[in-house]
Amino acid sequence: MIRPRGGDFLYSDREVEVMKADIRLAKLHGADGLVFGALTEDGRIDTELCTALLAVCRPLPVTFHRAFDMVHDPQVALETLISLGFERVLTSGCDSSALEGLSLIKKLAEQAKGRIVVVPGGGITERNLQRILEGSTVSEFHCSARSARDSGMKFRNPNVAMGASFSAPEYSIKVADVAKVRTLNAIAKNIL
């Protein structure tokens, strides 16, 4: 994923240069595809920036990430992504999770008519994947499939938190969970 920082998707000239450098590095090191997103200050797809970044990405396939969920008008934004040549768009249906945004995901997939792959993502788990796939008619999905693992730290300072109070505990690490990946794949294979 090409993203120079957290926060919004309105980038400075310097951040754009970092994004281009990151794209070149990802390609140099054998990336199979790239993911990025950029918006204008009024919540539209930044067509000028996306065109420039897509040119650097090619010939690799490119997905527009969940910046899509922050757009002013998702139907118009989808047409813009199609016209720009993105292969995929990752979305939670402009809601807090793919399950909550399921009705819009379905509408977007129907609107796409095979011109772009709509990929639901955001809060997808083994408990809701079947409902999302059956309710949206999509053929792909994205999820983190992570579990928390205890830190190997022996000494633990209970007086310091290295971030916001709602962030992950200091002595817990999120890692890909092979069992979750296998379960999610089995669910998807049964449905798709």
TrEMBL record:
Compartment list: Cytoplasm; Nucleus
UniProt GO MF annotations: copper ion binding
GO cellular component: cytoplasm; nucleus
InterPro entries, per the entry: CutC-like (IPR005627), CutC-like_dom_sf (IPR036822)
A UniProt-annotated Pfam family: CutC
Keyword field: Copper, Cytoplasm, Metal-binding, Nucleus
Assembly and binders: Homotetramer.
Family membership: Belongs to the CutC family.
Known function: May play a role in copper homeostasis. Can bind one Cu(1+) per subunit.
Name of this protein: Copper homeostasis protein cutC homolog
Organism from which the protein derives: Anser cygnoides (Swan goose)
Lineage start: Eukaryota, Metazoa, Chordata, Craniata, Vertebrata
